[in-house]
Description:
The chain is an alpha+beta fold. Helix content is 15%, strand content 28%. It is built from 2 helices and 10 strands; from the N terminus they run ααββββββββββ. The chain has helices spanning 4-21, 45-49, and strands at residues 59-62, 70-74, 79-85, 88-93, 105-107, 110-112, 119-121, 127-129, 141-144, 147-150.
Amino acid sequence: MTTRRRTVLAxxxxxxxxxxxxxxxxxxxxxxxxxxxxxxKQPSSADASGGEGQxxxxxxxxxxxxxxxxxxxxxxxxxxxxxxxxxDFKAFSAVCTHSGCTVANVEGGTINCAxxxxxxxLDDASVQGGPAPSPLAPRQINVKGDSITLA
Length: 151
């Protein structure tokens, strides 16, 4: 005869693989919320280029590498850089707010996540489609001359 304790333990053991299966898309942790008082807005390229980056900050890209109306995903840094208008560079976390996947590309005028089809706007990373519950978090960059670095 099965005891109540055995039944509870067996049910818990069966649920474990289901919960562990959720880890598939959640390997990366979402970026933290912007600091209080920043209102979550991404600075314009003028704001982003005004200061010096961290000493020795590695270059992400040349400005010529980021097409107007497009962008590029930097997977190792978990950042996506866009240029919604000529000379206006924006940067956002490349971690999808739906399930933590790294966004795949910038095509067709949106930042795209291949995991479940979320799409984000180039200028403010607002959700344009798919299951994402919120915009991508803004990231700080410095644009100095033709060089783009993380702030």
